[in-house]
């Protein structure tokens, strides 16, 4: 129903919040299903991290046969752009943004840029309308809402139960849950000359218990697009707030044994088309682009707190490259190599050639009708209400760095293990019916921290977004609660649209090299 007395400026059947790939898939699927659809994007670009430096579908750690539906269409369209005649899973931010915009335009989705949700008005268990912060601060009303954002802001403002905590091992009987120390500590002094913990060291190992839960999420980082090509190279700027102490733990490592290190041991650089190099946090590194410990306030932070964290990560990232290029403690081979790198002028021209979004790998997670746990992605993998099949590795970046002694520290939080094909249940996208009946949450979906570590990929989010868009259109057509969408009808529509929701005969269900994913470019 519509609330005719709302005073809303805009009325739609389906309102999707968040122009990430998940939200794009949801909006396109909804509009193709006949629902008048609005996509609200808080920034000036759609595409989330895929248009902000994350230039991979991450299919190298997935089972190939699980990719279909709108996600598969995106990668086929990329192949058309690059003229390869096959799906392309490694791409450029500007190219995939054009693909996304074409799909939204062709589907008839209306897009509202540079507006974020400021308040949610409810009536009983239904969202009545949204007040948005933006240039004109409109009020938007829909019949069904979809929160596709990384942070779950709409979900939280609607009063839906959620968390961002790492569960302890006992909560869901997950062996990979909670605090997880690396198998080996690292030799580098974690203290300054006064004996205080250095920046990036969150505490002492002795004060933490393996397997215990906490309110911390995995690290964030930017994914700058760099180049060595003089035709495209723009100098990486030194941040105004450059602080060499932010990299003192790395300097101490260089001084105490890392003198023969290569750049590849500090940062990952992935080759992309047109002389581009995508920089990423290196998991096995002593210190890398992941700004460990600086991300903790993001999940439930307001705009001011997130702006502070964003600025801190920006300073850290630019300073990291400045440190590697100029500090005399850095081995000469690394200084010379980083000195030859620059930002690629073919990307992010409206943001100083630097990606505008911070890679928030994990924030809020809904506590919905069911919670998908480690058991559901490794052993109990079949679900009667399946709406997609995931298979990515269980992949959690480090969370924090802890001092072990005056000469050693240890990183904590990493999970990295091969994945299995597992069915994603529709109930993981729906709030509890007593909490909200016209909201679907394919972004901050109802997963434990461990299980979310295999769900949190743009390609998998597109699977869930596709399903949410079709389900929202069905709920609109029947004027029903999202919890009452007929799952067999939803599944039939998804199958007809190429979405993979079933285990396929003859296809591997467990990942091993050679039988599943694609090799990285």
Structure description:
The chain contains twelve helices and 22 strands. Helix 1 (21-32) packs parallel to helix 11, helix 2 packs across helix 3 (93-107) and helix 7 packs across helix 8 (332-339). The relative contact order is 0.19. With 521 residues, it is α+β, with helices and mostly antiparallel strands. The protein is globular and about 65 Å long. A hairpin with a 4-residue loop joins strand 18 (400-403) and strand 19. Strands 1, 2, 3, 4, 5, 6 and 22 form a seven-stranded mixed β-sheet that branches.
Instruction: Report the total helices.
Output: 12
> Mean pLDDT, as a whole number?
95
**Cα radius of gyration in angstroms:** 23 Å
Structural class: alpha+beta
Shape: globular
- Number of beta-strand segments: 22
CA-CA gap between termini: 49 Å
Poorly predicted residue ranges: 1-5, 514-521
Helix fraction, binned, reads 25-40%
Major sheet details: 7 strands, mixed
Strand coverage percent: 15-25%
Output the keywords.
7-stranded mixed beta sheet, disordered C terminus, 22 strands, alpha+beta
Would you spell out the secondary-structure blueprint of this structure?
Elements: E1 10-17, H1 21-32, E2 37-41, H2 69-82, H3 93-107, E3 110-113, E4 116-123, E5 126-133, E6 139-147, H4 153-157, E7 162-163, H5 169-172, E8 186-187, E9 203-204, E10 225-227, E11 233-234, H6 248-256, E12 267-272, E13 276-281, H7 303-326, H8 332-339, E14 342-344, E15 365-366, H9 374-378, E16 386-390, E17 394-396, E18 400-403, E19 408-412, E20 415-417, E21 422-425, E22 439-440, H10 449-455, H11 458-478, H12 487-496
Helix pairs in contact: 1-3, 1-11, 2-3, 7-8
């Amino acid at each position: 129903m519509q609330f005719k007395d709302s005073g809303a400026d805009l009325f739609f059947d389906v309102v999707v919040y968040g122009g990430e790939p998940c939200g794009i898939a949801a909006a396109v699927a909804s509009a193709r299903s006949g629902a008048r659809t609005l996509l609200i994007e808080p920034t000036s670009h759609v595409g989330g991290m895929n248009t902000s430096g994350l230039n991979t579908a991450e299919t190298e750690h997935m089972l190939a046969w699980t990719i279909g539906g709108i996600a598969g269409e995106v990668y086929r369209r990329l192949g058309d752009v690059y003229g390869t005649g096959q799906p392309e899973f490694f791409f450029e931010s500007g190219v995939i943004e054009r693909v996304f915009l074409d799909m939204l335009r062709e589907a008839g989705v209306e897009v509202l840029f540079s507006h974020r949700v400021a308040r949610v008005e409810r009536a009983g268990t239904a969202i009545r309308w949204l007040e948005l912060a933006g240039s004109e601060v409109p009020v938007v009303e829909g019949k069904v809402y979809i929160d596709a954002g990384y942070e779950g802001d709409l979900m939280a403002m609607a009063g839906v139960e959620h968390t961002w905590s790492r569960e302890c091992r006992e909560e869901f009987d997950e062996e990979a849950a909670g605090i997880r120390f690396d198998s080996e500590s690292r030799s580098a002094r974690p203290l300054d000359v006064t004996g205080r913990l250095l920046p990036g060291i969150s505490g002492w190992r002795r004060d933490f218990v393996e397997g215990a839960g906490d309110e911390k999420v995995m690290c964030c980082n930017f994914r700058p697009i760099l180049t060595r090509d003089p035709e495209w190279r723009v100098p990486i700027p030194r941040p105004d707030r450059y602080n060499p102490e932010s990299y003192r733990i790395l300097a101490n490592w260089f001084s105490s044994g890392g003198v023969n290190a290569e750049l590849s041991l500090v940062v990952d650089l992935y080759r992309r088309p047109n002389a581009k190099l995508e920089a990423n946090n290196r998991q096995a590194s002593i210190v890398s682009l992941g700004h460990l410990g600086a991300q903790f306030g993001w999940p439930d932070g307001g705009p001011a707190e997130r702006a502070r964290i964003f600025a801190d990560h920006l300073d850290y990232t630019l300073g990291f490259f400045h440190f590697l290029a100029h500090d005399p403690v850095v081995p000469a081979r690394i200084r010379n190599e980083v000195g030859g790198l620059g930002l690629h002028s073919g990307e992010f021209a409206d943001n100083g050639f630097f990606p505008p979004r911070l890679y928030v790998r994990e924030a809020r997670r809904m506590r919905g009708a069911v919670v998908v746990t480690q058991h559901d992605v490794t052993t109990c993998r079949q679900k009667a209400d399946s709406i997609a099949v995931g298979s990515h590795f269980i992949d959690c970046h480090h969370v924090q760095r802890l001092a072990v002694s005056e000469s050693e520290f240890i990183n904590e939080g990493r999970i990295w293990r091969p994945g299995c094909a597992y069915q994603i249940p529709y109930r993981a996208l729906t709030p509890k019916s007593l909490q909200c009946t016209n909201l679907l949450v394919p972004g901050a979906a109802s997963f434990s921290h461990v299980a979310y570590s295999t769900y949190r990929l743009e390609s998998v989010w597109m699977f869930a977004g596709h399903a949410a868009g079709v389900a929202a259109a069905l709920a609109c057509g029947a004027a029903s609660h999202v919890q009452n969408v007929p799952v067999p009808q939803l599944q039939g529509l998804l199958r007809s649209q190429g979405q993979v929701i079933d285990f396929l005969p003859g296809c591997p269900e467990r990942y091993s090299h050679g039988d599943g994913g694609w090799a990285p470019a």
